[in-house]
Amino acid sequence: MSTVHNPNVPIFMRHADRQFEGGAGVHDISLTVPAGTIFGLIGPSGCGKTTTVRLLTGIYRPDSGEVQVLGRPPHRFSQRYRKQIGYVPQQFALYKLLSVRENLQFAASLQGMNLFGRQRRLNEMLDFVELRDARNRLADHLSGGMQRRLMLACALIHEPQILFADEPTAGIDPVLREKIWDGFRHSRDEGRSIFVTTQYVGEAAYCDLVGVMGMGEMIAVDTPANLRRRALGGDILRIVVPGEQIFSATTALRRHQELRRLRYSHDEPGVIYVTVDDAGAALPHALDVLRAVDNLQIRSAQPHVPPFDEVFVRLMTQQEAVHA
Length: 324
Fold this sequence. Notes:
The chain is of the alpha/beta class. Helices cover 35% and strands 23% of the residues. The strands form 3 sheets. Strands 5-6-7-3-8-9 form a 6-stranded mixed beta sheet, with helices on both faces. A 4-stranded antiparallel beta sheet has the order 11-12-10-13. It has a 3-stranded antiparallel beta sheet with strand order 2-1-4, covered by helices on one side.
């Protein structure tokens, strides 16, 4: 029998398994999400992201291991605890023959919201997802992106303590995606927890913690900055010199142990990438080394933050090598 975990840790999994026919499912998933955290779950299609969310929302029960939300197994939640959860599923799950406003009214009534405060909150949600002009349109007549925005509004209408959102920004234009992430950060700053899966790997950089999944397993859980270091072997410096001086620059850098891990490409003449343990500490030293080279021109030198897509690809490649 599962013991009651610390309710101040809103999301907790320990060695959780859920198996399906053919070997699909998730295996040995462990993670802890502190209160007031945006947790992003990324991974290729079919890796187990949705299964993980369904375990955390009580739709699935684990075959083994522990899954607890707000200190309790979610499949045993009472109505009082369910009211503290918001959930945006991957597929549209509202009433197509109700209007946008009617769907929001229905969601609010299910959560027991009183009529006095309901209208104010409803208008706030319509503005947040930019559906005020479409408030009287049937849900069946909305585009796919608008339907996802409506589901997000319905999940947030009662201001839940935890939001589980399975690809909430899929099919939504970049400007509105940024607005939605602003809303997530605002909720986080008010002490709420957000658990998001996303097909846009770059959105991982918006999260406080990121879980990377592959083949039903949790490859890594860490901050975006630490995942970059893990994938790339450290921090990266990007140094630019004239193309004809790159040999002199790299020769000087390689004389120093902490600056030897470097690479350059013919596709970027004069650009040198140096992998270091700490970019803040290594950059002044690298500049001193290069300034000691006669007539060397340093066009720029700064820490380099590669896009999270590159980080994700490297982490997945590392995982594939482990399973090879």
